[in-house]
Write a structure and sequence with these properties.
The chain has one helix at residues 49-52; strands at residues 9-17, 28-32, 44-45, 59-68, 74-77, 85-87. The chain has 88 residues and is mainly beta. The chain has one domain (9-82). Strands 1, 2, 3, 4, 5 and 6 form a six-stranded mixed beta sheet that branches. The radius of gyration is 12 Å and the shape is globular. The termini are far apart.
Length: 88
């Protein structure tokens, strides 16, 4: 990960169905909810349980951080091993 100084912070996210894959895998993805430290437009890398085991539109709270790839492009990272909270 390219941003070791970034702290892990709580983040509320939701699952959504993408209309066009444009190089992304799968139809269900995770994005941040509005009004938090992460932009809604950022992709979230986290446990596939959030997109596979719950209905589209489900909301969760995860522990995550902002990072980027060597070739550029920021995204949100949360370990797939970490617990998450389903929000009602």
């Amino acid at each position: 990960m390219a941003k070791p100084e970034e702290p892990y912070r709580p983040l509320k996210v939701e699952s959504y169905e993408i209309q066009s894959s444009s190089g992304k895998r799968g139809k269900i993805h995770i994005r941040p909810l509005p009004g938090q430290w992460a932009k809604v437009s950022l992709q979230v890398e986290c446990s596939k349980k959030l997109s596979n085991d719950y209905p589209v539109g489900s909301k969760f709270e995860i522990l995550a951080k902002l990072t980027d790839r060597e070739e550029g492009g920021e995204y949100i990272y949360s370990s797939f091993r970490w617990k998450f909270k389903l929000l009602l």
